[in-house]
Design goal:
The protein is an alpha+beta fold and 142 residues long. Helix content is 33%, strand content 30%. It has 5 helices and 7 strands. A 7-stranded antiparallel beta sheet has the order 2-1-5-6-7-4-3. The N and C termini lie far apart (52 Å).
């Protein structure tokens, strides 16, 4: 698999997105309005907590994410390494305990129309399922 180091144009493009569009969409995602959610993740090299705006679709057991920029982006590599993250969806935190592959059909269906049709037109085929952890039950100890 090619690394980001081999793609300087893509790396510069992602840097530009991170330092312009992501800042605006992060603010919007924090309000809980609009199409954006946040993925809160820990840097695999730095240990720093980051928040990255993404668009996810709600699923009965968690969320479906479409990897717009592919699996090489830092947020995705960080959550795969950690095996978990937090999705901030409509202003509420949701603990994710597993990241799994997701079929194109399930990914598209999760987004519903008209987003499903737009994703099809754009030939998006790279989806991941983010499994939401079950809430911890209160202990019987008193």
């Amino acid at each position: 698999m090619a690394t980001m180091k081999r793609h300087p144009v893509k790396r510069r493009f992602l840097w530009l997105i991170d330092h312009t569009l992501n800042r605006a969409t992060t603010r919007l995602a924090r309000t809980g309005h609009g199409p954006f959610s946040l993925v809160r993740h820990v840097g695999r090299k730095t240990g720093t907590v980051y928040e990255t705006p993404i668009i996810v679709a709600r699923d009965a057991e968690g969320f479906v994410a479409e990897l717009t920029y592919g699996p090489e982006v830092s947020w995705y590599r960080n959550i795969v390494t950690a095996g978990s993250c937090v999705i901030v969806f409509k202003g509420a935190d949701h603990q994710i305990d597993r990241i799994e592959s997701c079929s194109v059909e399930r990914g598209l269906d999760a987004f519903g129309n008209p987003r499903k049709q737009i994703l099809k037109l754009l030939r998006r085929r790279d989806f991941r399922f983010l499994h939401q952890a079950l809430p911890e039950e209160p202990s019987a100890e008193g």
